[in-house]
Amino acid sequence: MSNPQDHPAQSAKPFRRLLLTGAAGNLGQVLRQHAKPWTAVLRLSDLSDPGAAQAGEEAVVCDLADKAAVYDMLEGVDAVLHFGGRSLEAPFEQLMHANIQGTYNLYEAVHKRGIRRVIYASSSHAVGYYPTTERIDADSPLRPDGLYGLSKCFGESLSRYYFDRFGVETVCLRIGSCFPEPRNARMLATYLSYDDFVELVRCALFAPRVGHTIVYGVSDNRINWWDNSKAGHLGFVARDSADPFAERFPFGGAWPAADDAGNFQGGPFILAGPQYE
Ligand code: NAI
Ligand code: 15L
């Protein structure tokens, strides 16, 4: 692995080396396009090959569940953008491997390497069992809507512990639905545009002090379930909105039954969890 001093032309950048996990995934690819001004070297990591490293990049194929490999991968890193892992509901063993063991390995290595800050891709599914009629904030008790959401609760609590015990700062991004455009009526509330997403990550990385912060990753949508007033210190201001897409998803007059998944913020994830007879 190269040394930051090997890149003197880029030494004016704020960070010497940032690690991006999940670099081959959807959001990892978005960040790869935008993170270069932040760091002399962007270390790209994933289970899948993130593709050839370009100028100012390094590529490391690594399974987050491999503790020794994760420790090696964190050598020389200043801060971590942690976007790797299972991103949907899945059998527990898979979530355990990637999201629970993987995130634990990451924080252990972060602490042992003396790294001061992690931006952690949590999910709104950590709180997906709140009804859509309720507005929640960073202090609302966790209400996961499945095993995937539960694995994100683990990451949030793990990062809380590593801050309280060791002072490792984390911003937990409870991302809503980050795609090029909203895909359904639920996303009129949960949509996060790519531009707003990159700005949120930038704010989380560069705010002078973050301690342990929970922030909802959501654009400035008129339908608004999430109150970000406790994350004002990040300075994040969403510029985009799902509202221009609203006419694509008109209300059809079909009121959901009281126990319908559509009544919950997690929407279809509620029905994607383990099924019992
Ligand atoms: P994605 O599924 O496209 O990317 C995840 C990446 O993690 C993949 O490239 C995969 O190969 C990698 N990965 C999986 N298991 C791994 C392991 N054991 N070791 C190393 N790498 C592993 O997901 P996406 O959409 O890019 O999401 C990124 C993160 O953001 C995920 O943690 C996801 O839970 C979170 N998130 C995303 C949202 C969205 O709207 N895209 C919403 C809420 C949370
Ligand atoms: C998530 O947590 C997923 O990672 C993402 O793929 C979307 O499904 C998103 O939630 C959502 O709720 O739309």
Please give a structural write-up.
The chain contains seven helices and nine strands. The chain is α/β, with parallel strands linked by helices. The N terminus is likely disordered. The protein has one domain: NAD(P)-binding Rossmann-like Domain (Rossmann fold). The longest helix has 21 residues. The relative contact order is 0.13. Helix 2 crosses helix 3 and helix 3 packs parallel to helix 4. Helices cover 28% and strands 17% of the residues. The strands form two sheets. It has a seven-stranded parallel β-sheet, sandwiched between helices. It starts with 14 loop residues before the first strand and ends in a 5-residue tail after the last helix. Bound molecules: 1,4-dihydronicotinamide adenine dinucleotide and D-galactaro-1,5-lactone. The site of D-galactaro-1,5-lactone (15L) has 7 residues, from loops.
Radius of gyration: 19 Å
Going across the major beta sheet, what is the strand order?
Answer: 3-2-1-4-5-6-9
Biggest pleated-sheet summary: 7 strands, parallel
Q: CATH fold name, please? A: Rossmann fold
Shape: globular
Low-confidence stretches: 1-10
The strand count comes to 9
**For this structure, what is the CATH homologous superfamily?**
NAD(P)-binding Rossmann-like Domain
Bound molecules: 1,4-dihydronicotinamide adenine dinucleotide, D-galactaro-1,5-lactone
In short:
This protein is an alpha/beta fold and 277 residues long.
